[in-house]
Amino acid sequence: MRPRDLDLLRGTLDLLILKTLSWGPMHGLAVLRWIEQTTHERLQIEEGALYPALHRLERKGWLGARWGFTENNRKAKYYRLTPAGRKALAAELSKWSRYTEAMQLVISAEVAQ
Amino acid sequence: MSRGEERWPGLRRVFRLPLGQRGVARDVDEELRFHLEERIEELLAGGMPRAQAEAEVRHRFGDMGRIGAELASIDRGTERHRARAEWLGDLGRDMRYAVRGMRARPLVATIIIVTLALGIGANTAIFSVVYSVLLRPLPYAHADRLIQLRERNGPKDTQGMVVTAGNLATWEQRARGFAMFGAYTYGGFTLTGVGNAQSVSALRASASYWKTLYIPPVLGRYFNASEDRAGAPHVVVLSHAFWESTFGGDPHVLGRALTLSGTPYTVIGVAPAAYELGLQARDLWVPLALPPSALTNHGDHELTVVGMLREGVSQEQAVADLTRIEMALAARYPHSYFDGHIIATPLRDWVVGSVRPLLLILLGAVGLVLLIACANVTSLLLARAASREKEMAIRRALGAGGGRLVTQMLAESLLLAIVGAVVGLGVAWAGVRFLVMRSPLGGPRLHGAAINGPVLAFTAGLAVLCGIIFGVYPALGAARVALQQTLREGWRESGGVVRVRFRAALVVGEVALALVLLVGAGLLVRSAIRLQHVPPGFDPHNLLVVRTGGMPEVRYPSDASVLDAYRRINTAVAALPGVRSAALVNLIPIGTSGTDCSVRPEGTAPDEGSTVVANYRSATGNYFATMGIPLLAGRTFTDADAADAPGVVVINRDLGHRLFGDANPVGKRVHPCGDTTSAGLEVVGVIGDVRANGLDAPIRDEMYFPNTQLVRRGMTLVVRGDVRAATLTPAIRRIVARADPLLAVSAITMDDIIGRTLAPSRFSSTLLLLLGATGLTLAVVGIYGVIAYLVAQRTREIGIRMALGADSRRVLAMVVREGLVLAALGVAIGLAVAWVATRWLASLLYGVSAHDPLSFAVAGAILLLVALAASWVPARRATQVDPTLALRSE
Lengths: 113, 890
What we know:
Oligomer: heterodimer
Largest sheet of chain A: 3 strands, antiparallel
Largest sheet of chain B: 6 strands, mixed, barrel
Number of strands of chain B: 22
Radius of gyration of chain A: 16 Å
Shape of chain A: globular
Helix content of chain A: 55-70%
Strand content of chain A: 5-15%
Strand content of chain B: 15-25%
Structural class of chain B: alpha+beta
Distance between the termini of chain B: 60 Å
Helix content of chain B: 40-55%
Radius of gyration of chain B: 39 Å
Strand order of the largest sheet of chain A: 1-3-2
Largest interface: A-B, 31 and 31 residues
């Protein structure tokens, strides 16, 4: 399956970004790599969608951003969760688990028939 | 993980510094470039050739340009949001700080707030009256197109005359610049059948009056063209006030029958309160209903005319067109008291014209008071800034920017100004109530004065302006504090010299402004006193004026019956105990202006230029003696001057001079009021000049005709009392009621009439005196503050001088001199400013030059004296300095 076919809802992408950044500040590419590595490349984020999502979250005040340096000493823009972002993440997570639970119930019911 | 991460903790600012628009674009570029380069390097590491790797990465990313633009647009929103949040945060912090500052020094804050509350409150009150009376548009539809039109009598005539019915008819046919003309004249009736008989004042108005000056009626409708016609059914429109006072606001008043001077009328409508009927008519409107013959009358000027400009036509165009028509009329009807020129005044200027100078002067005066108040507050803030210099220096040393300190200090002064303004609104509310209740300006436009939206906006603007005016210098000073020096100098003050000099300049300014106010007040007070002492030309004391409503033709069909009725009333009143004499006149001097008509000496033709326009009245022979008007030559009227006897006239000295020069007018003959008989009328007597049209009005040329020969249906009794005149009123009322229970009566003493005419001048002089005193008080406080501060600063110096043997008188003189120098400088500047500024007062002054030396001298002397007193107190304290303590104080 081409992960690209997976239609990631914007809300889902926001959740992935918030969750990823909950581990600590990262630049955009690092967020991308982290998600890809964690999902064993099964989930591939569209680069053209990632950056707008990051900037929108910054606009909402959920992410803070500042310039920093990578280990190869290159200048990069780092994002981190703000306290508001942390709260939002918790809310999104519980919403997400309620949603998947419900999905699971429906799907399991079909299988049992 | 990365070096970037280490930079996060410990810093207060999680966000980046503000970027600006160009910074946003650069940021986005840089972020994306980093991303692309990293990706390319990944691929290169995997062995892909560079060109292919670059193409692959770009392809995978998608449309760079579009995404970059999207990011930049999001970031710009972020920036705006952040800037606003920071600004609000700073503001909140500044305000909290300001409140803390105020609470730390409650006395200073209270003084400042009270000062500002008085200053801003007074300004708000006056402004709300100015707004209501001068600025608010007239209540009529198309008010901006309404022009009052008058006919010019001659080249010297600036007021113009009201319009003849014949000329108006011609205008209505030919004038192209005006959509319509409304016309009215004054009239009076005796209303019977509703309670006691009462005299009512009326406006006789044309039907087009209602279209020209349109405000929707409260009840019913206004009269139309078919009712504005001689012989049409009689209809009446009530004024709002009259509807409420006489009919208790009865909603079913429509269709009700009223009897006006014996004629039945039907109520068809009630006009809203916003209609202004002028001073003489305030009760009702009846149709003008001119008889057809009036349309050819080009000689009697009796209609007040308001024209409505046609849409898109300017006043100049319309008046030029009308002047052409009027010129043709003047050529066709010579000797009709119009020369073909039109005097046009926008209706609003005409309505408010008379009170404008007074209101603008009051506004100017309260403005000056506020400036003085601001100067005082600045001075106080500077003194406070001096004591906070240390704090500022430390804050700067800790990294606070100069700009931040300035905005913070300004926030403090703004907060003070806003609190002052809020308290000031209470002052303003009381002030507006006072002005509306007590001022003699009168009129519904004044009664509309209130603290409304525009007034609140004015107050808010004023508060911000004040906050900036008195805050900006202390704030800039605080930011300029010489850091090094202050910290090195220990806790002594450093910027003191500059600041004291500035405060001294403020005091000079305050004194100058206070002087301008005092000179203005002085001029108005002198003018009021002068006016009060103008001899009216008769004895106004113990004189009762009893007006009676007109005697209607229904019950008094002939002139003889009118004369007889009045004679009987007059005789009965004269016989009352306590009455010395009683006489009749149709129009009382000062209370009402007489009627004008032309008069020429015998032997001259009407167009010879010897014609004079004079004021004429109808009176009984004993009128002059009763009033106390001296008879200078000849005789007054006697019973022999009956209706059918040869016509006689009594003139005043002024008219005698004008008609006959130094010759004795008695026995000469004149042709008054269009008289065309060959004999004319004989001048039988000359009386002294009377201020017939008001104490402040010039002497007019006057003629008196015997009431038997010029019969008027509404006469006024003048009663000279041996006892207090007012106590005679009930008995006189009874006599009139016995003679004719339907005749309306109103009584007032002559002293009251004169008091009313003096009220505006008394009011304006009192108000300006009050403002002058306020300005003076503030200036004194300012002088005291600065001198006291100087003394406190120089405690050490004074101590040394005293220790070295200077006696206390020398010290006293030294300190007082400093105060006096400031005051003298202020007085000098103030005198110069007042010399120019009092020009604006000239129109309010009577019998006093705008450059009256006495007013200027007294105001200057008062200021110097209070300055002396204000410096004396701190100077005394300086002489009581204990040298040993003073020396140790450092």
